[in-house]
Amino acid sequence: MLGPPGAGKGTQAKIVAEKFELAHISTGDIFRDNIKRQTDLGKQVVSILKSGALVPDEVTVALVKDRLQQDDCQKGAVLDGFPRTIPQAQALDGLLADMESNIAIVPYVKVRDEEVVERLSGRRTDKRTGKIYHIKYNPPPHDADLEHRSDDQPETIRERLEEYHSKTAPLIAYYSDKGVLVEINGEEEISLVSANLLRAVEAAAK
Ligand code: AP5
Asked: What is the reported pTM?
């Protein structure tokens, strides 16, 4: 899943993973979980996530390599937030070649920067279930135990957008050249984005 912060990658990746019974690998979720548990990795990346910068490629690639070798990835996986730089994409090509696997589709969820700011300011996550909500577009149930991500502050959102445009957006051409990129309008309602995305994944799987 490719797209700017707040495009809906996490929201949609969960839906695709459930529908096609694939593993859902979110590098952001893995980093946040390590920060919460105060592991060595968590201590290494906490200030990077807080600033909105990207974690070094070698750290991220090693983590994904390990994760892809776990049993639940045998049928395939939805990669959410990885790769995020050209070196990460090249490393992934190498990993998949070693595993005799390949990329079926790279959905590029397109959303404008103004919309990103609106979405991230209103995003809330349920601490217990990990479900993603928006106070206006996808209101949480009353019994949810909500948290507001520490990198969803205006200054950090700006930094994340800059990182996206300079380091991640070049992947649009990278995957377009490989013939696997499918652009999805991320500014429709969540259910419509899902319907378009599921249709594209189904077509790619054939
Ligand atoms: P990560 O967790 O990957 O964050 P991100 O890419 O910035 O993406 P987000 O999780 O913010 O947004 P999303 O696209 O998943 O949108 P969501 O579905 O939540 O990364 C965090 C940090 O970890 C990075 O900054 C970096 O430091 C590090 N990191 C992670 N991966 C890395 C890598 N590969 N290399 C280096 N560093 C890495 O939706 C957002 C909101 O919008 C929600 O409130 C949702 O309810 C709402 N919404 C969703 N869809 C719609 C819709 N269609 N209409 C209206 N509202 C919607």
From this structure: 0.95
